[in-house]
UniProtKB/TrEMBL annotation:
It comes from the Bacteria. Transmembrane segments: none annotated. Residues 6-129 form the Glycosyltransferase 2-like domain. NCBIfam families: glyco_like_mftF. This is TIGR04283 family arsenosugar biosynthesis glycosyltransferase. It comes from Methylomonas subterranea. InterPro entries: Glyco_trans_2-like (IPR001173), Nucleotide-diphossugar_trans (IPR029044), Trfase_2_rSAM/seldom_assoc (IPR026461). Keywords: Cell membrane, Glycosyltransferase, Membrane, Transferase.
Length: 227
């Protein structure tokens, strides 16, 4: 029997916390296919993942390329793209099944951070509210999509940054997303490392530049220079 869901996990140098995150998915392996797509890690991420996923794939760097490769190698009719530092809710598979049965072609979860600070609760609230208003999902929200809708959208744009926003814009032409109120939990490490205000300003500046047609390669250089 083919899996109900293919979970596609793009990684680049995530060895330090990868085993813990993949362990949390082991109870899904009887129903879900786990595909890890390594984008050129030099820290042994692929070795850490061996045995904890159904297949390790190797791709040129770039989340868009990595996730498109994972989708091409997947076996299920529903695809879930999951960042390595994001944890799913316990009822994720059932929620996705209900969403697809209700006629949704794509969607995402609400997000929260793995920090109890009030500031991060506010940031998550604003991210989820913005997503509902605009119909745009970000990678941290664990975007899911039917295989048919993904193919019709042409997959992720293979650009250096904003591939999740690019795919959302394509999928919106097929219908509004299912905005699940169940939350995925994502890491606050980047915000904590670089400062909350600086990170907010950087992300909004990059998104605004992308909206007005800036080259994603140049935006990625700015983003990763700050990483």
């Amino acid at each position: 029997m083919p899996p109900q869901l293919s979970i596609i996990i793009p990684v680049l140098n995530e060895a330090g916390q990868l085993a813990e995150k993949l362990q949390a998915l082991q109870n899904l392996r009887d129903r879900c296919q786990l595909l890890l797509v390594d984008g050129g890690s030099d820290d042994g991420s692929a070795c850490v993942a061996a045995g904890l996923v159904d297949q390790v794939l190797y791709s040129p760097p770039g989340r868009g390329k990595q996730m498109n490769l994972g989708a091409a190698k997947s076996a299920a009719d529903v695809l879930l793209f999951l960042h390595a530092d994001t944890r799913l809710p316990s009822d994720a598979v059932a929620l996705l099944e209900h969403a697809v049965a209700a006629g949704y072609r794509w969607g995402r979860f609400d997000v929260r951070f793995d920090s109890s600070r009030a500031t991060f609760k506010l940031i998550a609230f604003m991210m989820n509210w913005r997503s509902r208003l605009t119909g745009i999902a970000t990678g941290d929200q664990a975007l899911f999509v039917t295989r048919q809708a993904f193919a019709a959208a042409g997959g992720f744009p293979e650009i250096a940054l904003m591939e999740d926003i690019g795919l959302s814009a394509r999928l919106k032409k097929q219908g509004r997303p299912c905005c699940l109120r169940a939350t995925v939990t994502t890491s606050a490490r980047r915000w904590q490392r670089h400062g909350i205000l600086k990170t907010i300003v950087l992300m909004w500046r990059l998104r605004l530049a992308y909206f007005f047609g800036a080259d994603p390669g140049r935006l990625a250089a700015q983003y990763y220079r700050k990483s």
